[in-house]
Model the fold of this input.
Amino acid sequence: MDQDFKSRLIAAMADAIIAHAEELTALDSAIGDGDHGLNMKRGFEAVLADASNITAKPLPDALKAIGMTLVMKVGGASGPLYGTLAMGLGKALPTEPSVADAAGALGRAIEDVKARGKSEAGQKTMLDVLVPVQVAFAAGGEDIATRLPAVAAEAADATIPMKAVRGRASFLGERSIGHMDPGARSSSLLVQAICSVFDEA
Amino acid sequence: MGERKNVGIVIVSHSAKVAEGAADMVRQMVGDSVPLAAVGGNADGGLGTDVGAIMGAIGKAWSESGVAILVDLGGAETNSEMAIEMMPETQRDRIVICNAPLVEGAVMAATEASGGSPLAAVRATAEELMGG
Done:
C-alpha cells in the first residue's frame, strides 16, 4: 500500500468524523455524556496533523501509530477502544495484505476490542457494527467495498432498539432504548469512509 | 535495604475538581504517609480522562510496594487499564484498579496503605465497600 493511498484513507476517516462531530455528540447527549463527537474529532485531527509521518511508515506501523494517537488524544473511553482496534489491526496485518488477510486481522482486532471494553455484540456498542461488518467482509464476494457501507449503516440502525449494558449509557437502563449508539454510528462512518477509498481505487 | 515504602494511591476522575477534592480528603486522613496523585479531565482541560496524564499520575505516586487506582466512571476505568498496559513491564504487575467508589475507596485504600499493608490488602479494603 503506497503512501498516497494511506493518506487518502486517513483523510477520508478524519473528514467523516469531523463532518459528523455534532451529530455524534448529539447521539451521545441522548444516552451518554455528550462528548463522543468532540472526543473523536480531537483524536482524528491529531491523526490528520501527523499524517505525513504516519503514512511514511509501513502499514502495520502506521496503524499502530494511529492507534497510539487515538489513545492519547481522544480523552474518553472511545480512545482506548478505537486505539485498541487500530493497534490490533497493526499487529495482525502484513505490510501488503490480501482481502482475506484484512478480514482475518479485523476479526482478531475485534477480539482485542471485546477484551478492552469487556463487551460483546448485542450490548449497544461499536461492536454491533464492527462484528457484522467483519462477518460480511470475511464472507467476501463481488464488490465488497460497495456493499459493506450498507451493512454498517443497517447495523448502526439496529442498535436503536437495543438496551445498553456497557458504558455510561448502561446507567440509563430502559431509557437507553430508542437512540442509536454513538459508537455504532462512528464505526459505521469509519467503515463508509474506508470503503469509499477502496471503491474509488 | 531501606524501609519499604507504602502503597501509592492514584485517583482518576472525569473531573479535575473531583479528583483534587478526593485527594484533599485522603491527605487530611493520612497526611504524607502514602504517595498520592490525582488526575482528571481530558487533554483540552474538559471533562474526560487522559491516558497520558494517568500514566504521569501513576509515575508520581509510584511505590515499590505498588499503586492502587480508584476511578469514577467507565471511561476512567478503560483509560486506566490502557495506561497500566503502557507502563514499563517491571511496574505493570504492581498496579491495580480497585472496584470501589471513588471517594470512599480512596480514603479506605489510603488508610490501609498508611499502615504499611501490601497492595492486595489495600485493594481488598477498598473493594469491601462494594460488598455492602
